[in-house]
Structure formats: C-alpha cells, structure tokens
Amino acid sequence: MSEYHGCELLEDLFYDLDYVWVRPEEDGTLTIGITDPAQTMSGRLQKARIKKVGTHLEAGRHVATLESGKWAGGVPVPFAGEVMDRNEKLLEDPHLINIDPYNDAWIARVKPDDPAHALDNVSTGNVAIAALEEWIKRYGVQCMRCSE
Amino acid sequence: MEPIDQIMQHDHERLDQLLEQGAEAVSQGAWPEAAHLLETFRHGIVDGHMAVEESTLFPAFERQKGDEAQSLTALLRKGHQDLRIFFEEMAEAIQEQDAETFDDLLSTVQTILKQHDAKEENELYPILATALTDHGEAAGRRILDFEAEAES
Ligand SMILES: [Fe+2]
Ligand SMILES: [Fe+2]
C-alpha cells in the first residue's frame, strides 16, 4: 500500500484513474468500488443507489449513483457486463464508503461480456499510483479517513 | 450584448426550466412530449452550454489563474462527464416509460446541476470578462445563437 496526501492507494488494484477501482475475483467477476481520494472528495455520503442484479451495462455507464450533502455523481464501469451482486449494506449505510472504501464498502460485482479485454481501460501498479497522485494533486485532495 | 457572466447564468436558468418541463411531461405520462423536451434540453446543455465552457471558458480561466484553477475545472469537467451519461440514462428511462427510474435520475441530476452551476456562477463566470481577450463576446454569441435556435 502507498500513501499520498493521506490517501491510501493499493498497488494490486486496477484503476480507471478517476474515481473507480476494479479487483478481479477468482470466479471471473470484477469487483468495483471508489478510491480513498474519491470518497474524500465526495464528502460524507448520504445516499447510494446501485443498479439491480441482472442489469446489463455498457462500458462507461453508471453502476451506482452516490450523493453527499455537497456532491453527487456516478460510478462508471470501465467495461461492459452484467451486475452479478451488489453491496446491499451500502443502500442502508452509504457512509461506509467513507470508512472502508477498498474492502467492506465494495459497490458491485460485474461479470464482463468480454473477459479478455475487460481490463483494457484500467491501469495498475506504479503507473496507476503515479497517475492517481497526479489526480490527488489536481483536485487538491487531502484524505482523512472516517473511523465511524 | 449582455456581459458573458449574465448570458451564462441566464442559460442555466433557461436549461433548468426546460428540464422542469420535461419532468412535468413525464409526471403526466406525456412520453413523446417528454422525449422531445429532454432532447431539446440535452442538445442545449451538451452541444451548446458545456461545449462553450469546455472549449473556451475553462481554458481561459486556467490561463488566467494558473495551477490553482485546476482543482475547480477538473471538478467541473468531471461533472459534465457524469451529466452526459445521466442524460442518456434519462432518455432511456423515457423511452421505456419508466417514471420511477426517471425520477431517481432527475433528483441526482438536479443536485449535480445546483452545485455545479453555483460553483461556476460564484468562482468562474465573474472573471471571464477579463480572462477572455474579446471579453467573452464570441462565447456569448454562440450561447445566444443556441437559445435562438431552441425558440424557433
Ligand atoms: Fe458547466
Ligand atoms: Fe454552466
């Protein structure tokens, strides 16, 4: 794990280099969530809507919509696929995203239409970390993780 | 011609009203009318308003303010990107005559627009007249042409 301006960044995840992280699972699905700097910029989340299981999404479409008192935005999927599972806990308590964005507060699991090319538009490792640090600088983010 | 900050602010109001009218048509189940109104709104905001902002106004602001401008324009550009996708989803909800999904999307879009427009009106528009060499004349003209087209 690396840290920049207080923001945690995990080298082994894949990133769209904006809001979203992607983690390949053993069953071929891809888990999606938002990054620590993205949750910080969003502010304390008060509402989360996640597309229903079975929904098919084209690449770039929103799998979820998040709202805080000061911000609202979408969580785009970097590849086309079908929603296989969603984190029901977030519908009740979207603020979990501010507490544990990489683990407990995963958003959805999506089965890609074309597994061979599902990760074509995301980056990982040092390249991704460097680009995310740029992102943090550009938005002027300083992360402070909520503990409750 | 009005100053550029006024033109842009009035365009926000005009676009808000168009979206309201579209939402009204959805609530009455007037689907073809809703589709038409939403497309008029989408064309005005995406091809007119946002295009002028991204091609002319944001770059002028960035030139004027340097690096410190980036956190604002990055946020505004991301807002545009999200909005474009939400508009497509709204059009699909209308096509599928799905008022519930439309209302969810509408509430998100209105929240985004409220924040987004306030940021532009408070932090960006006021300096445009000095940041643009023609004081925003060309950009203002493009917006007014779009408004005239929508009325004809
Ligand atoms: Fe804008
Ligand atoms: Fe605007």
UniProtKB/TrEMBL annotation, chain A:
Q: Which Pfam families match?
A: GCV_H
Naming one, the record's GO cellular component terms include: glycine cleavage complex
Q: Mind listing the GO biological process terms from this record? A: glycine decarboxylation via glycine cleavage system; protein lipoylation
Stretches assigned to the Lipoyl-binding domain: 29-111
Is the Zinc keyword given for this protein? no
Which InterPro entries does the protein's record reference? 2-oxoA_DH_lipoyl-BS, Biotin_lipoyl, GCV_H, GCV_H/Fam206, Single_hybrid_motif
Cofactor(s) essential for the protein: (R)-lipoate
| Annotated family | Belongs to the GcvH family.
**PANTHER family named in the record:** GLYCINE CLEAVAGE SYSTEM H PROTEIN (PTHR11715), GLYCINE CLEAVAGE SYSTEM H PROTEIN-RELATED (PTHR11715:SF3)
Recorded protein name is Glycine cleavage system protein H
Name the species this protein comes from.
Acidithiobacillus marinus
Automatic annotation (TrEMBL), chain B:
Superkingdom of the organism of origin: Bacteria
Residues of the Hemerythrin-like domain: 6-128
For this record, the Gene Ontology CC terms, alphabetical, are:
plasma membrane
Q: Name one Pfam family in it.
A: Hemerythrin
Q: Give the protein name, as stated in the record.
A: Cation-binding protein
Source organism of this protein record: Acidithiobacillus marinus
